[in-house]
Amino acid sequence: MKKIMFVCTGNICRSAMAHHYMQKRVYDLKRENEIVVSSCGTSAVSGDVSTKNAILAMKDYSVDLTNHRATNMFDIDIENYDLILCMTEQHKYNILAYFPKLKEKVFTLKEYVLGKDIENIDIDDPWGYNLSIYKSCAKEIVDCVDKLLEMI
Hints:
This protein has one domain (2-151): Response regulator (Rossmann fold, 3-Layer(aba) Sandwich), CATH 3.40.50.2300. Helix content is 39%, strand content 14%. It contains five helices and four strands.
């Protein structure tokens, strides 16, 4: 069983979108006995709900974020995961500052699926922006998660 964690700042936009999209795809592919997916935030307030625009953006992919609740990285056993995929390099540094022994397991999502030589390694935060920015962010996440599923 491969355990995958997605990480962003508040766990109400990017990591939530990645988590629930991948969870849906894992079930669609009947791989739920192979892959466990979760998410957290480096500065999340545990229990927060996803933003309205994140919920709306993910409807395009038949993903329902209305029941998602944020989890802070300290409220989950992050050391128990096989792969920790961060939305930005800063998230990666934040995780490694507190959990240095996870060095071999922590990557940005884009670096993991596209390689370290890509120009922009981060998935930008849509928080506070309009729905079209959220939809663009969601598309970037979906494309990366689809590549991830091909890899594992």
